[in-house]
Design brief:
This protein is an alpha+beta fold. It contains 3 helices and 7 strands.
Length: about 160
């Protein structure tokens, strides 16, 4: 006799609204603190969330961050030098900067094609005299657009709808 044949099965479905309870150690938050594909980059180090300074980051770092989250590509929206001061306060007319009591983890994030993810990229621990939350990095993650026939990768399924009137 099998125990599973007579057992009643029970399922619980829940929705997690707390942005602190996520699997990955990188997230992107919009100006309202909600997960998004565009906004402030945050990294969880030693269990504590903190931002990434925009100063000195290379283009490939944005791509690696976005790939870690599940996107195909990404780009920094904030400049990577002193011109980025207060960029996070005015991005899309909203304040995306981290809270004053929040950590800032890294700056000068440099990734190469050899890096498999964000953790393997070179990055410097933050020097508070160099970077404040006025320099928090803003990122935009996206998937490639396969609208043009020539850019559709081999093996990709494309569905076309046929309209019947």
């Amino acid at each position: 006799m099998s125990y599973t044949s007579h057992a009643k099965k029970s399922y619980t479905i829940s929705r997690v609204d707390n942005v602190d309870i996520v699997d990955k150690d990188i997230r992107i938050l919009d100006s309202f603190g909600k997960p998004s594909n565009e906004g402030r980059v945050e990294y969880r180090g030693e269990g504590e969330w903190g931002t990434i300074c925009s100063m000195g980051n290379n283009k490939l770092a944005a791509k690696k961050i976005c790939q870690d989250i599940g996107y195909k590509n990404g780009e920094w929206k904030s400049p990577s030098d002193q011109r980025s001061k207060n960029f996070c306060k005015t991005f899309k007319s909203r304040n995306h900067c981290g809270a004053k009591n929040q950590l800032i983890h890294f700056y000068n994030v440099r990734c190469s094609e050899l890096d498999t993810n964000f953790d393997s990229c070179n990055k410097q621990l933050i020097d508070p005299s160099i970077c404040s939350h006025d320099f928090d990095a803003i990122i935009h993650c996206f998937n490639e657009n396969y609208e043009v026939e020539k850019t559709i990768p081999e093996g990709t399924i494309r569905l076309n709808s046929i309209r019947k009137d």
